Amino acid sequence: MLHKKLKAFPQDFLWGASTSAYQVEGANLEDGKGPSCQDVKEVPEGTSDLTVCADQYHRYKEDIALMAEMGFKAYRFSIAWTRILPQGIGEVNPKGIEYYNNVINECLKYGIEPIVTMFHFDMPAALDEKGSWSNRESVDWFLNFAKVMYENFGDRVKYWLTINEQNVLTLSGPVIGTLHLPEGCTNELKEIYQQNHHMLVAQAKAMALCHEMLPGAKIGPAPNISLVYPASCKPEDNLAAQNYNAIRNWLYLDMAVYGVYNNLVWAWLEEHDATPEFAKGDEEALKSGHPDFIGFNYYNTATCQWDDGSEKVSTFADQQTARGEAGMFKGFKNPNLPTTEFGWEIDPMGFRATIREMYSRYRLPMIVTENGLGAYDKLTEDGKVHDQYRIEYLRKHIEQVQLAISDGCEMMGYCPWSAVDLISTHEGMVKRYGFIYVDREEFDLKTLDRYRKDSFYWYKKVIATNGEDLSD
Ligand code: BG6
Fold first, then answer.
1. Could you tell me if the CB of 417 is within 6 A of ligand 1?
2. The whole model's pTM is what?
3. I need a labelling partner for 355 at 20 to 30 A (CA). Which of 136, 253, 329, 401 fits?
4. Residue 176 within a domain
């Protein structure tokens, strides 16, 4: 659709950026914090461990002051479960509560709205020992953690996100170091979708509890949504795209919003004897969630073609790389899209298409909780980072958000990845996303000083003009 006049971004649009605790904080076992799955996993070869990261635990004041200088209206960060409850359940760690109180208060001091992700890839290691999300009790563990957060921070935090990228946890757990399977598991698919089911129930109950305990707050899910294109106009490729859209995207949002399993996914799981078991009360619990908005991460679209099931297809992939499921779909590299230095496709127009599709399916306001470009940034001798490529990437994506708004989609905010440089999920420190450069290398911690990148100054102007001026 060509618009003669574009609609403006809403006046209260939440411009900001995102991080997650295990990637940015460091201090991973300090002040009583327990280990999470990220602290005990084997890190990918050649990449840093997660002990120091960007050291935000000790430098949150400086980081938040820089965010304020950029004019942030919101900061999306996650609360590390093991900082609050070192063993996942049981004793609360007062130092953990104190830390997040400080972070929240520091944000509010500058008028920055804290947007809290309750769970970002960091299951307490002690709970993995107890069976992780395979254990039915995980629903209660998570609900207890949610309650502690609502009690301690609910007087100030108005926006909550439940589980970051539950679809990535389910589809790419081994890549990000989160999948924990019980010994002797014979049907891996069933086990993974049972875990997924427990997360879905936990999420719905946490949303209902939020509404009960914090009537003024808003809560929503935060999946990674990538609209899936068919590789051609062949009818079978279109079916394949529908299959992958269901498995990758709609399962999570159909459940969060309507409390029902996507029928295509359910039928596929039935074929593999992998449907999850419902405990008593799950059906009602799943319907009781009612998110107030949808948070979603978008990096690019996916493309796939038909797969007749005769050969094994690769199911191993990271968050954004084409994958396959025998007899359902097969990943396809879209020849129309450029890629980043790390091989992820770049598709700003697909952003608009993804937003349009989500809005027509769910009719809820949406906030972008991640979007961004991972690149090898270079700090010059005079302390600059000329990341014009990131400005280009973000500009093109913000333009598409405005087009989607002009299409009639309700958008609440834009929080790209990431506020500050941090450790990537599986590609280390060299894959930088931030507006703020952190002076460290993969294994050399250097000064950890902060530097404003060119994108910092550019984003500051974008925010100051409420998205009207996207020029350099
Ligand atoms: C998302 C995650 O999948 O993508 C983040 O929510 C992650 O945790 C981001 O860092 C970018 O991915 P990566 O693999 O480049 O760090």
1. yes
2. 0.98
3. 329
4. yes
